[in-house]
Amino acid sequence: MAIGSGLGVACLAAALTIPSIIAAHDARSASREPRPGSNNSAVYQEFRDPYGSLPLRRIFVARTKPGPTPVPPGVDRLPEVGEAIVSPKLSEILASHPGIAGLVPGRVIGTIGPEGLGGSEDLYAYIGTTPAKLPQSIPLGGFGSRHAWHELIDESTVNILRFTLGCIVLLPLVIFLSVCARLSGESRARRLAALRLVGLSVKDTLRVNAGESVVSAFVGAVLGVVGYLGVNEVMARVGLPGLHWYPADGRPGTSTVAVCLLGCPALAWVVGQFSARRAALSPISVRRTGERKPPKMYGTLLLIPGLGVIGGYCVLSVMGRDPSGGSASSVLVPGAVLLTGAGLVFGLAPITAWLARRLAGVAKSLPVALAMRRTEVDPGSSLRVATGLVLLVFGASLTQGVLVELDQVSRRTAPVQEYNISLSELSAQQRQQLAQVPGVRMQVPAYSSWDPLDGTMRPHVDLLVATCAQLTGTTQWARGCVDGRIMQLHDDNSAYPEDPQPGDRFPFETRDGRKITVTVPPERIDMRPYQPSVFRTSALLVPPALAPSNLADADGTLTLVSDADPATIRGVLDGVGAIAPTASVDPVGIGIDALAQLTVIRSLLAVGMVLGLVIGVAAFVVSVADRAMERRGQVTALALLGARAGTLRVVQVVQVVLPLVVGLGAAIVTGWLAESSYLITGGGAVHWDWEGLPLLFACALGVLLAAALASVPMVRRHIDPEHIRRD
After folding, report:
1. Segment 619-671, tens digit of pLDDT
2. Bridge-partner residues for 467, per DSSP?
3. What's the alpha-carbon Rg for the chain, to the nearest Å?
4. What is the C-alpha to C-alpha distance for residues 522 and 634, in angstroms, rounded to an integer?
5. Helix (H, G, I), strand (E, B) or coil at 447
6. I want to staple 279 with a disulfide (CB 3.0 to 4.6 A). Which of 134, 189, 269, 531 is the partner?
7. What is the DSSP letter of 411?
8. If DSSP codes are grouped into helix, strand and coil, which group holds residue 304?
9. Residue 54: enclosing H or E segment and its boundaries?
10. pTM for this entry
């Protein structure tokens, strides 16, 4: 019981400190934010660029006159002209990749301390320069703001994360701690009944049980907190994808320690009071193995309002109505999810008992009949064995929904992703290398027509160097494209205020300063691009063989195209950052901050799933082992009556598998409906996550197979008269 409580408390501490880690990161980020003010002794300009798939922040600072200047946290003084102070991670990158020194001009004179960084992997730099090199400078008033401008995770997403972690970690954790508090429940009940029969009062009998439970749980809670502290020290140095923190951030606060050290013993006391009440009030029935009362069906009633709300939103979506955007759904959907999860927990025992009674009446096999009758008499054991794994599958459905929703809002829904890079920032060799980046499907150079930049409004047109195959592979559809001819792109759904007409002539500047003229052809290509895209209406599609070879790079953009899954996007951005680290990359339709945030959320949800899996498996192992201990007398009696070892093992496996089949089947159905209602009310384009169903079924089958195999060694055909001498 102490070891089980320790494992549970360690998982609880990990779940409770995740918001603290995020809050500490954002607090330090807020303390370093440059703040405009009336101080005229210094000016600054901030640049935020992607370095691969990571955000890089550079604060250029210039002195305008002598005098004191504000100092950011983690830095002793601001850098002078030609100096730079960088984060430790950026210092490592600069040392290992000298070619990217252009990102941080100047001599590195020091590194930023931990109090001036959100995390240990931040890419941050303060760079000294002159006012003339900062055309959009702002007077520097100080550092620090009330809130971080660039949060690790925005507040609305943090609330979703808390709710999801609560479902996939905290709910199974309560079940697991309850299971640990009821270890050896049958043998303990017989011992408490003996104390009651020799004269101990009801109150004193309950106190004996409570004392044992509370002391064991408290010892386990202390072990769990100490164990978590050790794990935090290791994980803080290793980190998670997208999330790195300092060890102090993950150390539990006073409130978290209080919840762990007091909450676990309190739960053990409550569970102990209920589990020992029957032995204290009716000791004879316990000692003589009296008939138990069947479980009540009241717990299943929680499924009615939960599934009513979830199913209602699903029906509205099927009918073509959009229930998203209302404030009621933000309360109804989480409440319905919690009611449904509670209904799965409390309804599992009565439903399993009812089903076992029906199956026992029609069973022709002796092992199945024995297993069903035992399940009918003691359905509470199925609650302890299966609940943790059932809640894990139910929580996995919710996790899939959260990831699908966040994936929709953090990037565009097109199947292709474009990246725009100015041609003036790339050499010829770099362009060739970019084509070889894993994940890049094609390159499309684009040039804008010449603009005199004298303030006059002149029509312009874009020239795209691409083939018909490239156009077709990057748009929804394209009709009428002919290779080897210059043609104009046209989209009926896009309004272009100055649509070029056939015969219009547009000048394009060359590298030597001359102008060449391109005439708009009469042929058009009807197409439907993904928005936004370089393939937009009114642009001219020029085959590579007919494209002028000496157009000015200053007016050109190189567009890379890849698939739109997050892993490919991160890989392409990292590849571009390695080849052209000083080039500014614009991932069309997405933000680097959103991509980084999605990485953090995925990591945290993965941690939650791992914790939930550990808790669920631990609860299953503890419950099965405990039930095997409780059933020693019955197994001995069956062995004396001539039952074979294979029969006993089949009985054990069927007893474990039946409640799991019922619970996991219900978890898949209700979890998928809960996920769908969350997606429907979220307002995204995806309402039904059909791709996630095979994964849930595979997880459920894996759980069933593992449970069946783990149940076999729990039955020993060893005849010990001590186990049945009282019966």
Report:
1. 777 766 666 666 666 677 777 777 776 777 777 777 777 777 777 787 788 87
2. none
3. 33
4. 91
5. strand
6. 189
7. S
8. helix
9. strand 54-63
10. 0.67
